[in-house]
Amino acid sequence: MKLTQYFKAFLEDTVDLNQSRLDLLDERVAAIVSVLESDSAIGKKILEHVPQGSWAHRTIIRPLNDHEFDADVLVRLEEVPEWTQQQYLREVRAALRASTTYKEKVRKKNRCVRIMYANDCHVDVVPYIHLADGRQVIVNYAEAKFEDTNPAGYTAWMKERDTLAHGNLRKVIRLLKYLRDYKQTFSVPSVILTLLVAERVSAWDADARYGDVPTALMHMLADLDAWLQVHQTMPVLEDPSCPGTYFNHRWDQGKYENFRERISQYSAWVTEAYREVDKQKSITAWQRVFGTSFKAPTTTTLVASAPPVIAEAIPRAPEEQYIDELFIAVRTGYSVRIDAVVGKKNGFRAGPLRLFRSIGKQRSLTFTARTDVPGPFDVYWKVRNTGPEAAGNLRGGLIPDDGTMSRTETTLYRGRHYVEVYVVKNGLVVARDRHDVVID
Q: What value does the mean pLDDT of the chain take?
């Protein structure tokens, strides 16, 4: 059984970080930034601070089993040409150590300065720089180099996926993080867990697959399991918002293999609990996954759930085609990813599209698809524009790939548009991806 009210109570009472801790976290970050801004050496070089990771993505959970909750905050500094890469981290650490409040709390890390608190929390302060060449970077101290990053792009990508999943992706990620910390049978960094789960989300049949939390949990775990079974060795784990940046250094093959086995086991348990028609047996089956804290909601939590966050339906365009009407769509362990690059234009930046919140008209966009589907296969593209300006020229037809696994378009109409790609093998749609395009 789905037991949606049980899940609502479980998230609120056991999994989600309580509001008092979130408020305290906000206060602590504000105090840290205030100290940095008042420092004589770097205070005037601080431009802004940006939440990152679980805090920014709203996937932070309540600590258990001696785990801590944490927040990552990017502190954007002016580029100082005469500084080495390592000096950015040194200056931030020195400013915090000069404070009587933080000098005993500071811990040196490779990419951040960690502030440890006496209870169950720490804050990672990450120096973050926009270079003159347009790159956004953080510091790898051990290797004395900059590493590309795109925090706004990653957060936007997460929001896209969460919207496709009717607002239930973040809740499922929180449940899986709880499962990791409660069971302690597998180890995976939160950023990798988020990547692996979010990448499995698809627009196909979203209403049926992600309509509520337990349904979304069952399908996302099953899809993750199918993908993991295809990949016996740890694949390349690339940041979807920053091509060329990878997370593999945070994990290893042994932990990957164990994760692969455990996800298969827990996916089977979740499916069994979901499909059990006897309520008490279903409760027992869910408790095998999450423990006895998964229980009947109290009268104070037995209230109507908030309506799901569902993307606004887009009416069918006159010439629009849907891949599912031409081929049979199936779930497999294979995947495809779209990378999009904004072309050069005098006076304007170029680079990965996710580095831009939006782009203007008359910009060139090149979309490239990469897939792990073994050949031979066919690829189709779909460019869907929306909004008043495009009303007389709506698109949405399926376009066969020309063999390059890429497509170039020009931005013409203001609005929120998207591009999709589909991999078809033996008459089956075996992988798909979507990339939003916002034109202002």
A: 93
State the pTM of this model: 0.90
Instruction: Round to whole Å and give the CA distance between 348 and 212.
Output: 43
Cβ-in-10-Å burial (0-12, 13-18, 19+) of 350 comes to: middle
As a three-state string, the secondary structure of 261-321 is HHHHHHHHHHHHHHHCCCHHHHHHHHHHHHCCCCCCCCCCCCCCCCCCCCCCCCCCCCCCC
* CA dihedral sign, ordered 176, 182, 183, 188: positive
Crossing angle between the packed helical segments 190-198 and 213-230, to the nearest 10 degrees: 100
Dist CA 162 CA 147 (whole Å): 27
Nearest of 286, 23, 71, 19 to residue 175 by alpha carbon: 286
Give the list of residues 6+ apart from residue 182 with CB closer than 8 angstroms, or none.
Answer: 64, 65, 290, 291
Question: CA triplet 263, 265, 269: central angle to 5 degrees?
Answer: 110
Over residues 394-404, mean pLDDT:
97
